[in-house]
Design a protein that fits this description.
The complex is a heterotetramer, with 1 copy of chain A, 1 copy of chain B and 2 copies of chain C. By secondary structure, chain A is of the alpha/beta class. In chain A, 36% of the residues lie in helices and 17% in strands. Chain B is mainly α. The chains are: A alpha/beta, B mainly alpha, C alpha+beta. Bound molecules: adenosine-5'-triphosphate (ATP) (2 copies) and magnesium ion (MG) (2 copies). Chain B: Keywords: Cell inner membrane, Cell membrane, Membrane, Transmembrane, Transmembrane helix, Transport.
């Protein structure tokens, strides 16, 4: 509490005494953060573990049960699970560096501090559709011409895709409106279906939705050049940066009714029983970026097109659509968490 | 005082080893497993109801379970047939190029199964998931979905991946089969095929069961192949389901599925156990010396050789080639163009691969390499030493209930998803237990968990070979007054050497490739190759990940070579 | 030195050794004789400590080595006994010399001594030139000799032999039994020796135990066994050739040929082959037989004929051709009479 | 029906079968006799097709089955031969009945027939009650009988036996050889039979081949072997007991006892045991021996003594105690004389 309000300058001597900070991170880019951090604060050793959000969650829970403090800082995605299973049990706690209080909008500061935003949005092959997205409305995906040609990762295999499904259900009202726009008549719900979102998911699956195991398979399927009739599907906007290397033609479909997908946060949080509380706070502060307009070395690994910093003061990445122009739902992790399991069960019943 | 001691001693001699092994298995396997079981029950057991008796259970459990069992049994059968056939060819016939076939046939399970699946796709893939089709579509054939996706390709790919396990274990066993058993069969006028399936494979039943069980366990817990080939037609297996459940935060359901997977598998594995525990003996190494027997294949020599070569090339060279290409080609869409060594040795270049330098510039590659090797070697020796002891206990001391428990327990780690296994280890041994310090964060904990995870391989292979040594050989050594470990070292070990080498190899390959357990338990000061590969992959640097995978593969291959050479230097008279 | 007290052994419920008691002094040479499957090997294995009796006690001298009741068993290693396995049980991964050497190594003999013992044992068994071969590369008889050499080299106090010469030729067997007796005498060991060879039994044994169905039929000195078989089984089992056991009933040989000298019971009369003569003519106590086989032995011929399904062997000195209508003349008195249970009556 | 022409076999350079030629007609019963390691098993294995001769041809009837020169070999499966392995080679994972059944299954006999044959074979070998046991659960002799049953049940045209009765007791052996001869006669098969048992050789054989060091020493009818051994080796090897081979030199027995009847060469004189008498007093052709052993046989006693390191066996009828100062009187004429190479001279 006391520490929470300390400035970097005040934290530094304490952190130096601790001399070490352990970070669990869901991305290997933490390696580059580590180098930068140790260069910025010599004498404080950052120890970084790279593991998926799921593995972090398993590890944090087991560690808590065993009474050991593994990490000081947790850098994690998979917001709904983190909130319900970690934050609510106080296994991880919120920390917002004083420096960030004014730079990060409220919605990204609570219940945990979000460092940046990622996406799962509808994307298409710009080589096959040079005139823009062939789809203007999510409901188009349930039409016969897209039968067997919509692709995504099995929402029961990956949390972010389940979040997408959940958001669609949460935004049922928008979905119902979009239905009218697409078919020119009000939506009629099928039996046992409670809302337009569920109806959409049902119809999508009924339209021979193709499921795969990883985002990369989606990218390849959609993006591969030289296809006459490529599928369309949901994936990460930021993967577009690999277009050149991989030979893809991925492009985001932004103008979609009611939305092209979701934007979700990556959290930076403290371990409630951190062994190095000061260094932990210092590390979070560092990872939020410095005062330069690209966030400096601490944020550099995350300053990529298709991911947006939650800080409002950083410059837009030149290659990407600004967040404000991006037509996505920003998930509300708390709301999502509430019905996520039900949506999972709903999807489970479909396949 | 003396009387109870007197009573104790003979029963110790009779059950002591088994009891000791049971104790170790409780610590290594049963306790962590119980932790997981308790977790699933803590919240009222709702997950059990969801999985077994709810409107969801059909999709959540029953259908995936059915698929899993079909796959498991088909793969086990296929692997035993294919692996057994190749083992027979290599060990018992004069097929040309035996050493090379032997070498190649051990490779497939070192190649990650996604590469094998990729190889399948490169031929049979159709346009269902976009992109270009495979070779067949390229030639103008239209490939139906059942051949591109789902059950059939999954089974074929898994057989192509796991038959090497069966091959390795069965070949080791066959090489010790006393020639006169085969000769006796030849005298009856039986055809080669008849002898193979009527005598040769049955006399090495322990190895066949070991190979089959390992393949079964591998197949039912494999994730990559059903995820790659099954999902597009919405075929789910228990492993994809439970992986998904854990992934989307429904951990309890995931663990319930894992426990159910274990339970179902235990039924099938129990059948194998019963055969091994029956009165039947499989002592093919007799105390009368033995001459090895080789069939001359005659006119079938070339056709059979061709068949073996085709299988080997398709299941090893093709996936390896694809893997190699995938580590050289900038685009995963056209694997055979624009090859560059950048991903291996390139210096950092901001304009290419997001500035990532080649893997040989990775600052931790060397330390990852050495840690991997050291850890691998340590774990493998620990696991196999234990495995041999367990195998001896199971073969020589048949204690009614305990033996069965030991046998089953030693197999379970193979079926339990690594993430669950590792989590249980942290939960159980992470905190201090009584006077014992917390093991969390130590290499010891990782070592213990990996040792437990490798036990199935060690026990199965050990058991297959120990069962072949006729009892009187050991008894003759007991008569000399040599102690248990002395006999183990001088008599059992050399006679079981081939099988043990197989066990060492299989577990080594597994341990250096293991990710699921390592990723939760490793210590960051010493990353492992698998973790390295994983972090590359998780950021979308596939070429780099594949390059590291190839490094792992090369290490595995070197280990195989070493094992072969070691074996070759021994005079193979009894075998 | 070895004494057994009501020792029994069951496998899965069937008794294969049944209430066996006997004792032999130190330095004795006990031969176990008996039909296939009667429990001889099981006996040896119990003495060796490889099998635990299900009942009774085994003592070596004063020392209890196994007690079926309490389950106590001294492990084989601590009995100072050696066993030649019926199946040889050679270690297939060791050379001939290696096989012989290993027990010596276990006993921690100095290298010098070991070399000498190996050389001696191989020399004695005529396998010196096979030293570097593996068990799979030598003949059956050679393997058997290796098994013998391996057991003898460490000079155990109790030597157990399970048909150790069964795969050797007659000439070698004569040599070997000579050598074995020498070793036995030199080491003062107590030996238990299973054999099917009557000559071995008669020449080597200080005591013979004839077993049948897991029980001891007779335990005696070898000469007494021949002279005074205590049961029909023993009478018909020992001797080269074994005595004829001719069924009698109502005072008639084979139930047909009346003889006043015979008792009036149903049973068997023991008639030694050498007391049966070949007869030219029918006459008293003469039985007509069909010729089964003629075996030259000890300068004579054993002539076996079958009468009423009973094989009868006679011995003849003459080298004449046998008449096509062969007749045996039985002796005036049977050497012994056994009742229908096989118990000796006279 | 079986003929061998200059058949040889080498293992790693050493010839273990050396230039063997002979032939036997269909239905013959050939016994191979010879010391341990002389190549008997190897011969059988070549006949079976399990071993390829390195030289020479083997024919079954007119059919060439193996040719060492060209490397041609008819596979074992196509020779219609059966082999009882010296090591039994029972399949450990099958029951006794299963072991016997498997070859019948391979021969595609109908189930009915198979059952009958199994029952018959087991009955004949006295192992009926072991049908459901596994090989590891029966005694050595029982295993050997299973091996026999397994070979006999399919009734092959060529039956090869490698010491098939070595682990059976004398009584059972007599029965078995009787049964085997019956099978042999009934099926009209040609048999080749390796044994160390002289009685078996003499009673079963139509032809005997005595082997030594891979060569055939003598190939003859059994009686002729005893009566007219063609070499010192054969003389000293066959017979129960085998004839004495007493060294002679310069017309002196044992180089010391002059005898005008002896030729003036260095070699061996063959003296049958039955022609040597026990002497009370020193006298002509009398040699003083140390008693080695006494074996009761065929109602007589074989007395073996050692003189100058030479074992000499005599036969005595008397049951008297042997004098402590034992003397043997040699016969006036040796039955045969062999030169120092072992070749027969007279
Ligand atoms: N693989 C081998 N390498 C070298 N020598 C061998 C091999 N197999 C057998 N021999 C030798 O060949 C000779 C003949 O062996 P074989 O088994 O034919 O003898 P045998 O006459 O059957 O003897 P026995 O009566 O002891 O069984 C033996 O001296 C044996 O040592
Ligand atoms: N494991 C077992 N289970 C059941 N019966 C067994 C087992 N082992 C041996 N037997 C039986 O016990 C009896 C005695 O066996 P043992 O080996 O002692 O006979 P043996 O006298 O040595 O015979 P042989 O002269 O044939 O070697 C046999 O009838 C055999 O079938
Ligand atoms: Mg026995
Ligand atoms: Mg032999």
């Amino acid at each position: 509490q006391d520490l929470d309000s300390k400035s970097v300058a005040d934290l530094l001597p304490l952190a130096k005494k601790e001399a070490k900070v352990t970070v669990y991170a869901f991305t290997s880019r933490i390696g580059r953060v580590e180098e930068a951090f140790e260069a910025a604060y010599p004498g404080i050793d950052m120890v970084a573990f790279d593991m998926s959000s799921t593995e972090q969650i398993a590890r944090i829970k087991s560690e808590a049960a065993a009474g050991v403090a593994g990490a000081d800082v947790i850098y994690i995605s998979d917001a709904p699970v983190v909130l319900t299973e970690l934050a609510s049990q106080n296994l991880v706690t919120r920390y917002v560096p004083p420096r960030m209080e004014s730079l990060v909008p409220e919605q990204f500061k609570s219940p945990l501090l979000a460092q940046r935003l990622s996406t799962k949005v509808l994307m298409y092959n710009e080589e096959a559709y040079p005139d823009g997205s062939p789809v203007k409305n999510l409901w188009d995906l349930t039409k016969p011409e897209w039968k067997g040609r919509v692709i995504m990762v099995d929402p029961l295999q990956r949390g972010d895709y389940l979040d997408l499904m959940t958001e669609i259900v949460l935004k049922s009202d928008d979905m119902a409106k979009a239905y009218e726009a697409a078919f020119g008549k009000p939506i009629a719900l099928g039996e046992g279906i409670d809302n337009a979102g569920e109806q959409f998911i049902t119809d999508l699956f009924a339209n021979d939705l193709v499921l795969v195991g990883s985002t990369d398979d989606v990218n390849k399927a959609i993006g591969a050049k030289g296809q006459k009739n490529p599928p369309i599907g949901f994936t990460s906007y930021s993967d577009r940066r690999d277009n050149e290397d991989e030979g893809w033609a991925l492009q985001v479909a932004n103008d979609i009714e009611p939305s092209n997908g979701i934007v979700f946060p990556a959290f930076l949080a403290l371990n409630a029983t951190a062994a190095n509380p000061a260094a932990a706070r210092l590390a979070i502060d560092f990872m939020m970026g410095d005062d330069s307009n690209t966030g400096g070395d601490g944020f550099k690994p995350f300053y990529v097109a298709g991911d947006w910093p939650t800080r409002t003061d950083l410059a837009q990445h030149p290659d990407a659509i600004p967040l404000s122009d991006f037509k996505s739902w920003q998930i509300d992790a708390a709301e999502t968490a509430k019905i996520r399991a039900n949506v999972a069960d709903f999807v489970l019943a479909l396949q | 005082m003396t009387v109870p001691l007197r009573r104790l001693r003979p029963s110790l001699a009779r059950y002591g080893l088994t009891a000791a092994m049971a104790l170790i298995l409780v610590v290594l396997v049963a306790a962590p497993l119980a932790t997981i079981l308790i977790q699933t029950l803590q919240s009222g057991g709702g997950a059990w109801a969801d999985v077994l008796a709810s409107r969801l259970s059909q999709n959540l459990f029953w259908r995936p379970a059915t698929n899993t069992m079909i796959i498991g049994l088909a793969v086990a059968g296929g692997c035993v047939l294919l692996g057994g056939f190749l083992a027979w060819l290599v060990v018992m016939t004069d097929v040309p190029g035996r050493p090379l076939i032997a070498f190649m046939a051990t490779l497939p399970f070192m190649i990650p199964s996604f590469a094998t699946a990729l190889a399948w796709g490169s031929v049979f893939r159709n346009g269902r998931v976009g992109g270009a089709g495979g070779l067949l579509e390229g030639l103008g054939f239209s490939v139906p979905d059942w051949l591109s996706w789902g059950m059939v390709p999954t089974i074929v790919v898994l057989i192509a991946h796991y038959y090497a396990l069966a091959f390795t274990v069965i070949a080791a066993a066959l090489s010790t089969v006393n020639g006169d058993l085969v000769e006796a069969a030849q005298m009856t006028g039986a055809s080669r095929k008849r002898i193979l399936f009527g005598i040769v494979l049955p006399v090495v039943t322990p190895a066949v069961i070991a190979g089959g069980s390992l393949a079964f366990a591998g197949a039912v817990s494999n994730f990559a192949a059903p995820a790659l080939l099954g999902l597009p037609v919405r075929m789910q297996t228990l492993s994809t389901r439970l992986f998904g459940m854990i992934e989307i935060g429904q951990t309890e359901r995931g663990y319930v599925l894992a426990i159910l997977l274990i339970a179902i598998s235990a039924i099938f594995l129990g059948i194998g156990n019963r055969i091994l525990n029956s009165r039947r003996s499989f002592a093919t190494i007799s105390g009368k010396g033995a001459r090895p027997r080789r069939f001359t294949l005659g006119t079938m020599r070339l056709p059979l050789a061709l068949l073996a070569w085709t299988v080997c090339i398709l299941t090893t060279l093709l996936p390896i080639l694809l893997l190699l290409a995938a580590s050289l080609a900038p685009s995963s869409l056209s694997l055979f163009s624009d090859w560059t060594l950048h991903y291996w040795i390139g210096a950092a270049d901001p304009a290419f691969a997001r500035g990532q330098p080649g893997i040989f510039h990775h600052p931790q590659l060397i330390s990852a390499l050495t840690t991997t090797l050291m850890l691998g070697a340590g774990v493998v020796f620990a696991a196999n030493a234990l495995g041999l002891l367990i195998a001896v206990a199971l073969t020589r001391q048949k204690v009614p209930v305990l033996s069965n428990a030991v046998s089953q327990l030693s197999f379970l780690p193979m079926l339990l998803p690594g993430i669950a296994f590792a989590a249980a280890y942290i939960a159980l041994y992470g905190a201090p237990i009584g006077p014992l310090p917390a093991l969390y964060g130590t290499k010891l904990l990782l070592g213990l968990a990996l040792t437990a995870a490798m036990l199935p391989f060690a026990v199965q292979t050990g058991r297959a070979t120990v069962a072949q040594i006729s009892g009187d050989i050991d008894e003759a050594a007991r008569m000399t007054g040599a102690g248990f470990f002395h006999r183990l070292w001088a008599i059992t070990l050399p006679l079981a050497a081939r099988g043990l080498a197989a066990g060492l190899l299989i577990s080594f390959v597994n341990v250096i490739g293991d990710l699921a357990i390592t990723v939760l338990l490793y210590t960051p000061t010493s990353p492992l190759l698998a973790v390295l590969s994983y972090s590359y992959a998780s950021d979308g640097f596939h070429q780099f990940a594949n390059a590291v995978t190839l490094v792992i593969l090369v290490i595995s291959m070197l280990a195989t070579c070493a094992a072969t050479l070691l074996r070759g230097r021994r005079r193979q008279t009894f075998a | 030195m070895i004494s057994l007290n009501q020792v029994s052994k069951s496998f899965a419920g069937t008794r294969v050794v049944d209430d066996v008691s006997f004792s032999v002094p130190e330095g004795a040479f006990l031969v176990l004789l008996g039909p296939s499957g009667c429990g001889k090997s099981t006996m040896l294995r119990m003495l060796a400590g490889l099998e635990q009796p299900t009942g009774g006690q085994i003592r070596f001298g004063d020392m209890l080595v196994a007690d079926g009741g309490s389950g106590f068993a001294l492990p084989p290693a601590r009995r100072d006994a050696g066993l030649v396995f019926q199946s040889y049980a050679l270690w297939p991964h060791m050379t001939v010399a290696g096989n012989i050497d290993w027990p010596l190594k276990v006993a921690r003999l100095p290298a010098e001594e070991r070399r000498a013992r190996i050389a001696e044992a191989m020399e004695m068994l005529g396998i010196t030139q096979l030293a570097q071969r593996y068990p799979g590369e030598i003949s059956g008889g050679q393997q058997q000799r290796v098994a013998l050499a391996r057991m003898i080299a460490p000079r155990p106090k109790v030597m157990l032999f399970d048909e150790p010469l069964s795969n050797l030729d007659a000439t070698l067997r004569v040599e070997m039994r000579f050598e074995l007796l020498k070793v036995h005498a030199a080491t003062g060991a107590t030996s238990v020796y299973v054999t099917h060879d009557q000559v071995e039994a008669m020449t080597m044994a200080s005591h013979v135990a004839v077993m049948n169905h897991g029980r001891i039929e007779q335990f005696d000195a070898p000469e007494r066994l021949l002279a005074e078989p205590s049961s029909a089984f023993v009478a018909g089992f020992v001797g080269t050739p074994a005595a004829n056991l001719i069924p009698i009933a109502d005072g008639k040989w084979l139930g047909t040929i009346a003889d006043a000298a015979l008792p009036d019971i149903a049973g068997h009369a023991m008639v030694r082959a050498e007391t049966i003569e070949l007869a030219d003519e029918a006459g008293p106590r003469t039985v007509s037989v069909t010729l089964a086989e003629v075996v030259p032995m000890a300068g004579r011929r054993l002539v076996t004929g079958v009468a009423n399904g009973v094989r009868i062997t006679a011995i003849t000195d003459s080298t004449d051709r046998l008449p096509s209508n062969l007749r045996f003349r039985l002796p005036p008195a049977a050497a012994a009479i056994f009742d229908s249970e096989g118990k000796r009556i006279s």
